[in-house]
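Thread: "does anyone have the structure for this chain?"

Original post by V.I.:
We have the sequence but no experimental structure in hand. Need at least a predicted one for the grant figures.
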Amino acid sequence: MLIPTIAALAPLLTRAAGRWIAVPVVIFEILLGIVLGPSVLGWIRTDDFIELLSDFGLAMLFFLAGQEIDFVAIRGRPLWRATIGWAVSIVLGLAIGWIVDPDAGAVFIGIALTSTALGALLPILRDAGQLRTPFGIAVLAIGAAGEFLPLIAISLFLSGRSPVHEAVVLVGFAVITGVAIWRASRGDGRRLHGIIRSTLHTSGQFAIRLVILVLLALVGLSIVLDLDMLLGAFAAGVISRLLLEGAPEEDRRTIEWKLDGIGFGLFVPLFFIYTGVTFDLDSLVSDPVTLALLPLFTLLLVVVRGIPSAFLVPRGTTARKRTATGLMAATGLPIIVAVTTIGVEAGDMDSGTASALVGAGLLSLLVFPLVALAIERGDARRPRQESNLRPRD
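Reply from O.Q.:
Generated one for you, tokens below.
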């Protein structure tokens, strides 16, 4: 009962705090998980069943991120710039990771610092009305690169197999996924759309069942191929979006609302709450050196991920908008959790370092989007204010 209680309480706390500051709901989910988990009160214990649901919540988060990306809007220069920005980030991240931990942990730290929490940013952008603006599209492109490319890096370098062997497996997965994407993008699904419409408001719910099938099939394929399951979840989101292309706008929106309800109403909160429950607070606060890593990693997210992204936005972008874009790019958490979990389980990363990285991701999610949206709103108002200050003819 405690976990669904947290899930129901978090939006109420977000609404109450909204009178003073717009706090993302995931912050309260994680914080309440920490307080009620083993680190503080010990009321919630970890078990295999909740962990399984949490894993599915993480997969659902990446699925919704893949489904939300409008590749027509971000293709070309936005996506190309975002890819170059991530390439710069991975070089910086690996170099800094080696300085912080010259052993095997360097790769884990480096990949974690290059991530962008697109799945967590999407609700924030949507609630702020920024999702379809030029600013939102730029963040979408950066987030797509900051979620998909770290997943490739995880599969190549953190799977425990040789990178060459893993690259061959990745190519096989890419071929299977590419065929599915090509087939879904042909737009010849009139019969499919007819079945979707006829069951959309019945107990059949064919569209939702089909989407869940695609999600589980690609996640299962990723697991069988020993790839990171989030790669399959992200690809499933892209395919599901293409499957729904050409459907009547009203039907498509209804399906998206239902999937949001399943994802953000049930499974995604489980992931964030369980992240708080499993957060190793003792390892973080018991060692002053480890505790000092928390602000250091938060700053490094800006240096490694934010600054390269800010410098690669289109020419003519104002300094304020560059800053806001960089802060959004530096917001990370889900991939940080995934990478640190792999590192701790493999024995290549200290649990204290992992907690500091997750804590930095938590701080970035709490602070960076709020500051970025405030800067963006201020930048949007400036031309109007300046025009009002000009003397009339």
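V.I.: this helps a lot. The chain is about 80% helix and 0% strand.
O.Q.: and Residues 384-393 have pLDDT under 50 and may be disordered.
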